[in-house]
Automatic annotation (TrEMBL):
Organism domain of life: Bacteria
Protein name from the UniProt record: FG-GAP repeat protein
Organism for this UniProt entry: Enhygromyxa salina
Signal peptide: 1-22
Keywords: Signal
Length: 782
């Protein structure tokens, strides 16, 4: 037997020269790690081949494609870095986990699988930008600029325990009221007692010396919309100085994620009614939002999205009442949207189109809050001013005109819903201390209920408070907040009421939202002293059998949240919207302390979020006082033809008023995973890593997802945060560059929603799939 030691290079040369057999009929084999040429073929040598003594592929022939100690199959190639057989995909690497697959012509390797991309696209969507260039089952990958398969799973849900959440301030703006303390319990939520004074523990912004610092009070409801198109909504509100709350207001916009200034409109010629609530929307359909505000002298102003004044109406508003609010709708179903205020309709250029002579939408001569809804089913919206409904014909600029559709009793604040679930809307009017239900098409009075404790009554909010599938009504009086049910015929009965304090206006508004997604909407109400979140029903009433405290009297011991706030109160209410682009609900509250009735709290704007991440998803907009979801889309565009709130979406209609949406799927949640971990660069001085972070759930997440990279020997390499939103079904890349953590190769792993210390931020439908790897990167040669 002849033994010939061969190097890897000489083995390759020999194989190429000799083909499947040696020149003298000998075969190739190995013995003790040395390649041998065996002429006898006795079989007493240790072989790693196919039984003939050669590195073989199992067919009995000599190896034609050796790779180290292996012989690659016909569909494999030798990786010269690792000397391992891998799937031979030509000029591209195999796709997916070993052995992977070869992508066919036109396909790309995406999230570990071969996919056929769609057409080109501009960018991945976000909370405020939901339009897409891609097909229904596709989503845009911004890094590739291509449409790829949508990874969203609509069965991905997370249901928090009902009523379990912990609201904490995210940021605040304005001036804090000095408050002495001996302990943290003497302070507001999340404040600490620091050397005898309450101090904030969150970002707080005081208007600078060049930003009209005296105008730090806020009474009007703050609105929410993405003015600058950066996927992060803004909070827009009127502010005022204590001495002139009606006629010297400054309109402001601050970033919703931080509270920092976007712009302030301080021009003396464009001062506002500091207690008025603006309306926001793209009324000319050019892609940019406009703001309609009430001026200090009771005209309308149009302000563009950058804070520039555009026009002022020529005429004074009807009735000339402070603290009112415009509403936006397309009344002729053509061209630009129009502006409603009280019983008047204005064109997008500020010209008065029509004015009625009945109800204004005011309660005891206090603010004007008219509603818009299609009451007769002809697709064209009607205008509702308290007990009067106005209908319209013709085209703006040609023959547009209006008339009284019906008149039923006195003026008041309105809301619209389908209480009988028959497809026909009813109108709720709060006037003179009573809640009144009217038939939508005719105005016939169906039922009335006196608000306990007196007071004129605040604008109604409408939602399903008790989870029985039928809408209920909430309204605030002078000393009680009350929720009532309608039997669908002629009677309203009390579900519960609660003691409040609002002797100043006794017309304050409220809002509703199902924070925990249990089917029962919570009430958010701020009176002169406190901000409260009430459960939809008393806790004992939700038990089976009911508990002893189910007595129709909601006490502070039964509520979900209470914190010090203050207001002189007009018609404002707290707002629920996604203010920071994270697809989840936040709570926005205006506060003031310049009135004797309500002066125990701070002045400005406060935003709360849930520390436990249990608040469900919602829309990134609340654009007007009479907001009802279908009146505007997430980007702020006013629909040409509005879907009826009580009929849309068909599977589960909103059927509510002054309540934001929880989305189409109950408990929708994200599911964050890592894919496509790879090295960028040559692994010479730095280790540059790239990984796709994908959301396989049905609820998006905002920027700032923690992504931690680790190496088997070196430990944690670093933590980075994603820089853009990841909508449901989409992916973004996260990058990390660190000095080489030792000698290659490196076994790298990635953990999503991990701050590097084991902490996470998101409630996901699957919590045990955030890890990816390890993957061997920067392999050594040979």
């Amino acid at each position: 037997m002849r033994h010939v030691a061969l190097t890897l290079a000489s083995l390759t040369a020999l194989t190429v020269a000799c083909g499947d057999s040696a020149a003298d009929g000998d075969t190739l084999g190995t013995e003790g790690g040395v390649v041998t040429l065996d002429g006898s073929g006795t079989g007493d040598e240790q072989s790693t081949g196919d039984g003939d003594g050669d590195p073989g592929d199992g067919d009995g022939d000599a190896c034609t494609n050796p790779c180290g100690d292996d012989c690659c199959a016909a569909n494999e190639a030798c990786d010269q870095d690792t000397l391992e057989c891998v799937l031979d995909c030509g000029d591209t690497d195999p796709c997916g986990a070993a052995p992977g697959e070869c992508c066919s012509a036109g396909q790309i390797c995406y999230v570990g699988q071969c996919v056929m991309p769609g057409g080109p696209c501009a960018e991945l969507g976000c909370a405020t930008q939901t339009e897409s260039d891609c097909e229904e089952d596709e989503i845009c990958d911004g890094d590739l600029g291509l449409c790829v398969p949508d990874l969203a799973d609509e069965t991905c849900t997370f249901m928090p325990e009902p009523g379990v959440f912990d609201p904490v301030p995210r940021w605040s703006w304005g001036v804090r009221k000095p408050r002495n303390c001996m302990a943290d319990s003497d302070c507001q939520k999340e404040e600490i007692c620091d050397n005898g004074s309450c101090a904030v523990t969150w970002p707080h912004h005081v208007p600078g010396d060049d930003d009209y610092p005296a105008h730090h009070q806020a009474m009007a409801s703050p609105m929410v919309a993405d003015l600058d198109g950066d996927c992060i909504p803004e909070v827009i509100f009127n502010s005022y100085e204590p001495s002139s709350w009606q006629d010297n207001g400054i309109l402001r916009a601050v970033h919703g994620d931080t509270g920092e200034k976007l712009w302030s409109l301080g021009d003396p010629a464009w001062r506002s009614d500091g207690s008025a609530i603006p309306a926001i929307g793209d009324i000319d359909y050019d892609g940019d939002l406009e703001i309609i505000n009430v001026s200090a002298d009771q005209h309308l102003h149009l302000i563009d999205h950058q804070g520039n004044p555009i026009w002022k109406t020529a005429n004074v508003l009807a009735a000339n009442l402070v603290s009112g609010a415009p509403a936006l709708a397309n009344f002729d179903l053509l061209g630009d949207a129009e502006i409603a205020h009280g019983r008047e309709i204005y064109a997008s250029d500020g010209s008065l189109l029509w004015g009625g002579n009945g109800g204004l939408g005011t309660n005891s001569a206090y603010a004007t809050l008219s509603c818009v809804a299609d009451l007769d089913g002809d697709l064209r919206p009607e205008l509702i001013g308290g007990g009067t409904a106005y209908t319209f014909t013709g085209t703006v600029g040609v023959d547009f005109t209006g008339s009284t559709m019906w008149q039923s009793g006195g003026d008041g604040y309105c809301g619209v819903a389908d209480f009988q679930l028959d497809g026909i809307p009813e109108v709720v009017v709060v006037r003179g201390g009573n809640i009144v239900i009217l038939d939508g098409p005719t105005g016939a009075q169906l039922a009335t209920f006196a608000i306990p404790g007196g007071g004129s009554g605040g604008a109604p909010n409408i939602a399903d408070f008790d989870g029985d599938g039928f809408p209920d009504i909430g309204s605030a009086g002078g000393s009680r907040y009350v929720v009532v049910q309608f039997d669908g015929v002629d009677t309203m009965t009390k579900l519960w009421d609660a003691v409040t304090k609002d002797v100043s206006s006794n017309r304050t508004g409220s809002s509703v939202f199902d924070f925990d997604g249990d089917g029962r909407s919570e009430v958010i109400y701020a009176d002169e002293w406190y901000l409260r979140i009430y459960p939809g029903v008393e806790p004992d009433c939700a038990l089976n059998p009911v508990g002893p405290s189910c007595d129709q009297n909601m006490t502070d011991a039964e509520i979900l949240f209470i914190d010090i706030t203050s207001s002189g109160t007009r018609v404002e209410y707290p707002v629920v919207a996604d203010v920071d682009g994270d697809f989840k609900a936040e709570l926005v509250v205006s506060t003031n302390n310049n009135f004797s009735q309500g002066n125990i709290g701070d002045a400005g704007i406060e935003v709360f979020e849930d520390r436990l991440d249990n608040w469900v998803g919602t829309l990134p907009i609340w654009n007007q006082h009479t907001y009802h979801v279908t009146n505007v889309d997430a980007a702020g565009q006013i629909p040409v033809v509005e879907s009826n709130n009580w009929e849309f979406p068909m599977s589960k209609p909103y059927n509510s008023y002054r309540r934001n949406s929880q989305g189409g799927i109950d408990g929708c949640a994200p599911d964050l995973v890592a894919q496509d971990l790879e090295v960028v660069g040559m692994c010479i001085d730095d280790l540059e890593l790239s990984v796709r972070i994908c959301n396989q759930g049905c609820l998006g997440v905002g920027p700032g997802v923690d992504v931690t990279f680790s190496e088997a020997d070196a430990g944690v390499l670093g933590t980075v945060q994603t820089t853009q939103a990841i909508p449901a079904g989409g992916c973004v890349k996260a990058l990390l560059s660190v000095p080489l953590p030792g000698a290659a190769p490196f076994d790298v792993s990635v953990s999503v929603d991990d701050d590097g210390m084991g902490g996470d931020a998101f409630n996901e439908c699957i919590e045990d799939n955030n890890e990816f790897g390890p993957v061997e990167l920067c392999p050594t040669i040979g």
